[in-house]
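[Q] Does anyone have a clean structure-token version of this?
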Amino acid sequence: MVASLNIALVEDNDELRDSIADALSGAKHKVVALDCAEALPEAAAFNAFDLIIIDINLPGENGFSLAKRIRQSHSEVGIIIMTARNESRDKREGYAVGADMYMTKPLELDELLAAIDSLARRLFGRSSEDHELIVDKHHMTLSNRKGDSIRLTSAEMSLMVAFSLSIDLRLEKWQIIEILKKEETEDPVRTLVIVIVRLRKKLQTLGVGETAIQVIRGWGYQLCTTLKIL
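[A] Here you go.
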């Protein structure tokens, strides 16, 4: 398990908010539980938190708006959207406004705790020596432990960052298409495959191997290596 996190929970259902807060506290996290978006700035500045869990259907400002506001000003804060809204368009909007994870209710508390641990390990939990590859967003490069480095295109960079923040390093096809901004192309899936193939070749030049990005048939892709994002 990762170290204790400072977590803000924004959920208007009193019973659910209390049960989640109890579970988070039981897992040794420090929790501020709030019933609306407007209470969050009054509780503390966004950068006081490592992670913010947000319901969408809040009174006043909704969860999408809140997540977007947080992401625009605090790029390093983890954001989990947790909601009963499970349609694809809602998930796309959630990721578009900056969520690292989009989880649908009802869900088991153990599942939420596992997701928090997974996200925290990617965002906060490892040193660069623990990772096989290092992605430098400023210099647009991908490097291995030996110091070998290659340049990435903006599309490849966006894809690697998205993989690093996803659950189990997995992305659905629609997510990748949206990340690559290829929704309006004549054949977005073919374009996606071309980007994946080129990225695989670059990974191979750094010694990762042909299976660095694996196909999950009928669903999407999984990155099978460890990353650190700089």
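[Q] Thanks! Anything notable?
[A] The longest strand covers residues 78-83.
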